[in-house]
Amino acid sequence: MPPKHHTGITAAVREALQTLNGVFSVDHVVNALGTRVQTYHDKDRVKKAIYEILKTGGIERIEHGLYQTVRTKKAPEIRERMWRILRANRAVTIEDLQELAGAGEAYAKEWLQMLARQGVVRHLKNGRWQMIYDPVEMPRDKEKAEKLRNIRLRKREAVEDALNRAQTAIIEARTALGKMEE
Question: Domain ranges in the chain?
Fold first, then answer.
């Protein structure tokens, strides 16, 4: 079944790759896309999409013109893919990250805003985000990490509190049983 026509070409190629097993070529991908690819221009777009997926680590080149899906290692997280795309292109739009990394619009925007707060990117008037500082390693969202730590701490405290209440209830129940036997 060919991918949906409303998706971008890179997303459509990603979908087509899921149906291909083993080694494949550009022509295999074109055939899997069906009527989505009708002109030489469309085929060039497929080649560019394959190159983008190759750069982000979703596939690997076996030899000239032959590729295979990378299944032995864990696929990079969406933020890792977005980071690679940002570093390679130096300026991106939210739509670029949606298309090339498979990120949701809200997640891509939140991630770029976090990078802006850390001084890594700046938002330009034309909707692009430009890298102004390249720390090589992807910056971590310290605010979100702190929120998650606090959530885990509150959950742990809630479980400990519930256990203490349960233990108290058990002691009270045993005491009541002991009095009933007397």
Answer: 9-69, 78-131, 142-182
